[in-house]
């Protein structure tokens, strides 16, 4: 049987159910850990399901953070101008999920969740050693979204670290299946992913006959 | 063997390879068709892999569009203030992919790709009949991202249509596996998804012992 939630039904729905519904209707979400550090070298790690591609030339990724309350990730990025985005794989999904507990700033989620900070030369923010695809970024812009009380953080991609060079195929990009990257739905569900098709660049001149 | 692309390596990489690399490093992306209509009732359908959750209270989803060139989706939304977001399932992935061919505005991608426009009362934008999870939205905000020449379109969720009421579980949101929703990587790859875990809300007080 079909189900139609109209505006009234959405408004009248109890708050907890609505949050779960709305968090699931965008479809599957990317699964990443954002690593940051403050000027006193206290590091921070946060699971983020809102990382999006912003542009390729220049190379830009973004993600959304809440702008209210105690936001260590946002504060650290504004302080040091750098952050990392680390793909979550199945082996670290459980630990990654628990970085969302609201620890005080003096506590490192790396330590609490038994993940290992990894540093490279001339770049201050910590990567996650257990992640297999890692991106280092420098802050490029910060856009406040008034309607939702969130901030879109945009970074320039300055480093890409792959655990295995075979993950990258020049003709198609990173093979995320091979890298074991997972995805998220809603607020709490983690999923394996398996490619079933790649299609050619769509052109009017060579359009398929459906 | 590990691979490290630093800023120089990224800049020196040939353009086509860099676009493919950068389009794949955000992780898996949501797979949706955005349906719009103009004031003359000419409809339009576009595959979009950048739909993101913006907020739950009010309920908001967003997606990014290029702000240059002939952008029928953006023009239609500005004209009629409404649009739809329709989850892509495996049965329509091939057709959905080819909505990205650059047809002139007089051509409807619904017709070209053999997908069926579906309308509900008091809402002008077309849904995709073959999609199993559909969202109707009214334009809430439009934010230009200067760095990338893109625009973030944000809509208020006013309708949620589910082909089967069993897709919705009040305690966890929409079961995307059950709805057959798929996800995207890079520019051309489509993936099946299978849940392997759900974890409890992370709290300091009941933190697991890793």
How is the secondary structure organized here?
Two copies of one chain form a homodimer.
Chain A: E1 3-5, H1 7-12, H2 15-24, E2 29-30, E3 32-37, E4 43-48, E5 52-56, E6 59-66, H3 72-80, E7 82-87, H4 93-97, H5 109-112, E8 117-120, E9 123-128, E10 133-145, E11 150-162, E12 168-169, E13 173-174, H6 176-179, E14 183-185, E15 189-198
Antiparallel strand pairs in A: 2-14, 3-4, 3-7, 5-6, 6-11, 7-10, 8-9, 10-11, 12-13, 14-15
Brief account:
2 copies of one chain form a homodimer. By secondary structure, the first copy, chain A, is an alpha+beta fold. Helices cover about 20% and strands about 40% of the residues of chain A.
Multimerization state: homodimer
Supply Rg of chain A. 19 Å
The total count of strands of chain A amounts to 15
Biggest sheet strand line-up of chain A: 4-3-7-10-11-6-5
* Largest sheet descriptor of chain A: 7 strands, antiparallel
Kindly state the percentage of residues in helix of chain A.
Answer: 10-25%
Largest interface: A-B, 114 and 114 residues
Average pLDDT of chain A, rounded to a whole number, is: 95
């Amino acid at each position: 049987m079909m189900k139609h939630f109209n505006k009234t039904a959405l408004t009248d729905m109890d708050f907890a159910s609505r949050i779960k519904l709305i968090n699931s209707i965008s479809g599957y979400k990317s699964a990443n850990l954002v690593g940051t550090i403050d000027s006193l070298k206290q590091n921070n790690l946060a699971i983020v399901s809102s990382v999006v591609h912003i542009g390729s030339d220049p190379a830009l990724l973004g993600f959304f953070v809440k702008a209210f309350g105690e936001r260590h990730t946002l504060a650290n990025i504004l302080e040091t101008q750098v952050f990392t985005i680390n793909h979550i794989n199945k082996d670290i999904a459980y630990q990654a999920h628990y970085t969302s507990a609201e620890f005080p700033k003096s506590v490192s989620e790396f330590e609490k969740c038994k993940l290992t900070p990894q540093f490279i030369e001339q770049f201050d923010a910590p990567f996650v050693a257990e992640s297999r695809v890692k991106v280092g970024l420098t802050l490029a812009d910060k856009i406040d979204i008034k309607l939702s009380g969130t901030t879109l953080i945009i970074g320039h991609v300055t480093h890409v670290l792959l655990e295995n060079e075979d993950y990258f195929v020049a003709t198609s990009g990173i093979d995320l299946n091979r890298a074991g990257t997972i995805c998220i739905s809603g607020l709490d569900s983690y999923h394996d992913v398996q490619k079933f098709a790649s299609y050619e660049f769509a052109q009017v001149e060579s359009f398929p006959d459906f």
